[in-house]
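[Meeting: bench + compute handoff]

Bench side (C.D.) handed over the final construct sequence. Compute side (W.E.) agreed to return the predicted structure before the next meeting so the bench team could plan truncations. Sequence as handed over:
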Amino acid sequence: MTTSLVYTGDVDWHTIHNEVFLYEGNCWTTCNGGFCCSNNHPDFKFQLMPTEGTTILYMEDEYEYLCQDGQVGETSLDWPEPQTMSLDYGGIRPLMIYHTPCHLLGLCEGKIDKPLLCKLYPFLPIFFADGRLETLAPASIFELTFEILASQTPCTVMSKAVAYLERWRYHPDQLAPLRHPYIMLYLQAVKHFAEIYREKLLTNKKLAGKTGKDFWSAWELQYLGGRLVDHGEWKTRVAESCRELTDRYGEFLAPKESIPQ
């Protein structure tokens, strides 16, 4: 079906955070207790990356909205201030992600507002610049790696990717709040990251031939050491996506200092 994209200025975070995107009640009972929230896997023996919990991520404007109109960990649970990751691709404003560990293990109802990432897990919809749904990307580095290696993921919902892709293409209204250039740019950045990561992972000699615990132990060092992503190429691809969206919708990333407080 065709998609009519209406861009009216601000992201409607209120609608987004009151929306149900996936309909998978009690899916945690099918994956050994909620893999998305625990990151527990028999082959994960990491030295630095956390298990018995996960890392939750917020887009910059999403985080600021929830600080004012919702619940985030540091205000509702006395969590420490989140850390930030910034991708300066040469645009008017870098892409900023707020991230913090979460050890609620799925028991977050009434304690924090789930980030959009959690509300969509395990899929992230990727849109063309005109708002049409292009594809679905795995919503975590673990799901992405399982997919690339054709390995079994504990997440049983991942097997429904084709069904959700068809559903959302036939009912584009269900993802309408996400068809905003600000969000689409972040999602395009995910797509570019996944493509570059795939290339690097499959050609990494340190990981070649490894499986199970041996693979994931070596993978942690390669991933955290920045050897599985070409950040220069990533920035180039994100800059191109930003230009395409700006050409279509006009400037949608105001410089941070000019955003009203």
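W.E. noted at the follow-up: The chain has one domain: 13-250. C.D. will use this when planning the next construct.
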